[in-house]
Amino acid sequence: MSARSKQEKKKGGIGKVLLILLAVVSIIAIGVYIAGVIYFQQHFFYRTTVGNTDVSFMDVDTSVNTLSNATNTYKIKITAPGDKVYEVKGKDISMSLASNAKATVEEEIKSQNVFTWPLSLIQPEHKEIKVEYSDSKLHKQLEDLLSLTKDPVNATITINDDNYKVVEAKYGADTAAVQKEIDDAINHQNYQLTLNTANFTAPEITSNSEQITNAVKKIESYLKSTVSYTIGSSKKVMDKASVLKVLSISDTYDVTVDDTKLQAYVEELASNFNTYGKVRTFRTQAGD
Question: In this structure, what are the phi and psi dihedrals at residue 33, rounded to the nearest 5 degrees?
Answer without folding.
Answer: -60, -45
